[in-house]
Write a structure and sequence with these properties.
Shape: globular
Distance between the termini: 29 Å
Number of helices: 8
Helix content: 25-40%
Mean pLDDT: 95
Length: 252
């Protein structure tokens, strides 16, 4: 019996376009990169803590290139890949045999996350390790409230659903990873304006790429959103929270 196709929640075309926009702006002096910077730092800390020295590594989604640079400085052979640019995370990888696969900020917007994890495991060498980080449930509570205030009686889906810690653990078990580790950490960032928050999200390819596109906000709705955003802060500064979920496991 054929397996049931996963629901189409996200638009692959919008997802690729969002990532290409982030890549195109990465060299701008004020381009935000704090989400990826946090994920890269975490990967390096985990490798040091485990004293794990992979020979071959695949890095998916790090448009800053900083993780590849750090690993190559350790004489690790690195392959970099970007979703939609020679890599479809929901299909078998065109390469394999990696001791380490680090996926950064991409798996929260695939339609078949269980399948994507299975493909990562298949691309690992025996004894290889996966580290996957992405935004998770609990992220952007201020923006969620602001959008509800903006939409009024007819709320639209403007922020995509996200995986929580419990589901992350279940996914690792389902994909047959050994010694799974699941953790979540907050990253809080202050903003002077709603426009800056939205701009930072888009610049880091962390925005809405749902298949069903929400209607644009009217001028009145934007006015309500700005008022709600200001009311959520103090002294002209509103703090937003990003929750980063990291899944790690081994192929044994």
């Amino acid at each position: 019996m054929a397996s049931k196709a996963p629901p189409r929640i996200f638009s692959p075309a919008r997802r690729i376009a969002a990532r290409r926009r982030a890549i195109a702006t990465r060299h701008q002096p004020d381009a935000p990169r704090y989400l990826l910077d946090d994920m890269v730092e975490d990967v390096l800390e985990r490798l040091s803590f485990l004293r794990f020295e992979p020979k071959r590594a695949l890095i998916v989604g790090d448009w800053t290139g900083s993780l590849a640079q750090a690993l190559e400085a350790r004489s690790i052979e690195v392959t970099q890949a970007e979703p939609g640019d020679g890599l479809d995370e929901e299909a078998p990888y065109p390469f394999g045999g990696f001791d380490l696969i680090a996926s950064l900020g991409t798996l929260d917007t695939v339609n078949d996350l269980p399948g994507a994890l299975v493909h990562i495991r298949s691309a690992l060498a025996q004894g290889g390790m996966m580290i996957a980080s992405f935004l998770s449930a609990g992220s952007l509570p201020v923006l969620r409230d602001v959008m509800l205030a903006a939409d009024g009686d007819r709320p639209a889906a403007r922020i995509h659903p996200m995986v929580d810690v419990r589901a992350g653990g279940q996914l690792l078990q389902r994909a047959l990873f050994a010694d799974p580790v699941i953790d979540q950490r907050p990253l809080q960032v202050g903003f002077r304006s709603l426009e800056r928050l939205v701009g930072d999200i888009r610049a880091q390819a962390a925005g809405n790429v749902l298949a069903d596109v929400a209607p644009p906000l009217t001028k009145a709705a934007w006015s309500r959103a700005r008022e709600a955003f200001a009311a959520a802060g103090t002294d002209g500064r509103t703090v937003e929270r990003f929750e980063i979920l990291t899944l790690s496991g081994w192929k044994k």
